[in-house]
Specification:
Chain lengths: 276, 179
C-alpha cells in the first residue's frame, strides 16, 4: 500500500484529478451566473382583418342622391352609357362602390354604391375591372377607364391632391408598375423619401414611422404623403415594429388596396391607395 | 528544466481541455443570446447541441428587429482560447435582401487565433462569389475583398457600385468604425 502511494502514476493521476476538479468548480461557478434559458422571438400576432372601407356619406346622402338621380333620369335620360367613364371601383359583386363621370366633365366624379342610379343607369354589380349597369331591362358593362393610366395617375395626384389634403380620407390610384419599379429599385425609395422610427414614451416599442424627408418631385410626394407625417397603421395593422411594415411589403404583390393612417398636424388622416 | 517546462505545458493543456469540456457552453450561448438581444438580434427556432469540446447549432433563424433576416442550417463553434472558430453552413438570406445580393450563401468561416491577436478573419463562399474579410481590433477597421460571381456581376451591379474595383477585377470595401 505504501509502495502504491509512492508510485509516479498515482502522483500524476492525483494532479490530473485536482485539475479536473478545479475546472469543474470553475464551470459550476460560471453556470451559477449564466442564464438558464435562451431568447426566443415572441411576435404579437397583429389582428389583420380584410381591409374594407365603407363610405358612410353615401349611406347618409342616399335619399338626396336618389332624388337627384331621379331628376337626372328625367332631365338627362338621353345620356348614353358610351358617354360615361368608370374612373374607379372597389368592392365585391354585390357590395362596394364605383366612381363614375361623364366624358364631357371627366373631373366631376360621382361615387355610386351598388343599387344606386346615375344618369338613368342603375349599378347592378362590380367586377374586377368593370361595372354592370342596367337600364330599361337591358344590361350594360362599363369597363374601367384605363386609357393612359400613368398620365391619369400623375394628373389626378397633382391636381386633386392639394384639395384632398384637407379631407380626412384621401384616395389615390397607384399603378402596379409603380409598385414593381420600387420593388426592383429599393434604393430609389430612400432617395425620394426618408422614414424614421418614432419610439413610444417608454422607449420600448415603436409608435410609428415618421416621414422626415420627401422629394417634392418624387412619386411619393404626389401620392399624398407629406414631410412630418407619422405613419401609424397600414391595412388595419398597427405599425409597432419593422416586421409589421415588412409583412405588408412582402405581400404587396397580392394586395389590391393599401390603406395607411397617418398623423398629420395632430390629426389622423387616412390615405387609401387603390392598386390598378 | 526542460522536463519541468514540458510537464507544466502538458498540465496546462490538460487543464484547458478539461475547462473547455466542463464549461457550460449552452449557458454561455444563452448569455450571448441575451446580450445580442439588446441590439435587436434574436436567434430563434434553433437546436443547440453541446459536443463536449464544441457547440453545434442547427436550423437557426436570425431575426434583426423582429425581421427574419437569415436562416442558418448548421453552425459549429469552437472556442479553445488560442484558436477560436465559428463555421456557418447553408445560409439563406431573407427575400428582402434579394434585390441587393444573391440570397444563397454556402459557407462563412470566422476565425481568431493568438498568432494574429489583433485580427479577426472571415471567408465566405456563395452565389455572390467569394469574399475575404478581416477586422482590425486596433483601428476598428473592416477590409473586404470580393471576387464576384457571374451572377453577381450580371444582376447586382448596383450593389457592386458601392465597392471599389481594382485592376485585377477584385472589389474591395474598407470602413473604419467610430468608437
Amino acid at each position: 500500500m505504501i509502495k502504491l502511494s509512492n508510485t509516479k502514476l498515482l502522483s500524476i493521476t492525483t494532479r490530473l484529478l485536482v485539475l479536473v476538479l478545479i475546472a469543474k468548480s470553475i464551470s459550476l461557478a460560471l453556470m451559477w451566473f449564466m442564464p438558464s434559458d435562451g431568447v426566443s422571438l415572441s411576435v404579437k400576432k397583429s389582428f389583420q382583418p380584410k381591409y374594407q372601407r365603407v363610405d358612410f356619406r353615401n349611406m347618409l346622402n342616399a335619399n338626396t342622391s336618389t332624388t337627384k338621380v331621379a331628376q337626372n333620369l328625367f332631365s338627362g335620360g338621353g345620356i348614353s352609357i358610351t358617354n360615361m367613364l368608370l374612373k374607379g371601383l372597389y368592392g365585391t359583386k354585390e357590395s362596394g362602390f364605383v366612381i363614375v363621370a361623364l366624358k364631357s366633365t371627366p373631373t366631376k366624379t360621382t361615387i355610386l354604391s351598388v343599387g344606386e342610379v346615375f344618369s338613368g343607369y342603375k349599378l347592378v354589380s362590380i367586377e374586377q375591372s368593370s361595372a354592370t349597369f342596367s337600364k330599361d331591362g337591358a344590361k350594360f358593362i362599363l369597363l374601367l377607364d384605363s386609357s393612359k393610366p400613368k398620365d391619369t395617375h400623375v394628373n389626378s395626384s397633382n391636381t386633386a391632391a392639394p384639395e384632398l389634403y384637407d379631407e380626412p380620407i384621401v384616395q389615390q390610384v397607384v399603378t402596379r408598375k409603380d409598385i414593381e419599379y420600387y420593388a426592383k429599385n429599393p434604393k430609389q425609395i430612400w432617395k425620394e423619401i426618408s422614414i424614421y422610427e418614432i419610439k413610444t414614451k417608454d422607449k420600448k416599442g415603436i409608435k410609428g414611422f415618421k416621414v422626415t424627408r420627401i422629394d417634392p418631385k418624387s412619386r411619393f410626394a404626389t401620392m399624398g404623403l407629406q414631410k412630418g407625417d407619422l405613419i401609424i397603421k397600414a391595412n388595419n395593422v398597427k405599425l409597432k415594429s419593422y416586421r409589421d411594415a415588412l409583412d405588408l411589403y412582402t405581400k404587396i404583390d397580392k394586395i389590391d388596396v393599401i390603406q395607411i393612417v397617418v398623423i398629420r398636424n395632430g390629426v389622423e388622416k387616412e390615405i387609401v391607395y387603390e392598386i390598378n | 528544466m526542460v522536463n519541468k517546462i514540458s510537464k507544466f505545458t502538458a498540465y496546462t493543456l490538460f487543464f484547458l481541455l478539461a475547462l473547455m469540456y466542463f464549461t457550460p457552453k449552452l449557458s454561455l450561448y444563452y448569455f450571448v443570446e441575451h446580450q445580442i438581444k439588446k441590439y435587436g438580434v434574436i436567434i430563434d427556432d434553433e437546436v443547440v447541441v453541446d459536443n463536449g469540446l464544441s457547440l453545434s447549432i442547427y436550423d437557426a433563424k436570425v431575426n434583426v428587429k423582429s425581421i427574419e433576416s437569415v436562416k442558418i442550417k448548421d453552425t459549429q463553434i469552437q472556442l479553445f482560447g488560442f484558436f477560436n472558430s465559428v463555421s456557418l453552413r447553408g445560409l439563406e438570406l431573407s427575400s428582402v435582401a434579394a434585390s441587393l445580393v444573391p440570397t444563397k450563401v454556402e459557407s462563412v468561416d470566422i476565425s481568431y487565433n493568438i498568432f494574429q491577436p489583433l485580427n479577426l478573419n472571415a471567408q465566405a463562399v456563395g452565389e455572390f462569389g467569394e469574399a475575404d474579410a478581416s477586422f482590425d481590433f486596433l483601428d476598428f477597421a473592416i477590409h473586404l475583398e470580393l471576387h464576384p460571381s457571374q451572377k453577381m456581376l450580371r444582376d447586382y451591379r448596383q450593389t457592386l457600385s458601392n465597392l471599389k474595383k481594382s485592376k485585377e477585377g477584385v472589389y474591395t470595401y474598407d470602413k473604419t468604425i467610430k468608437h
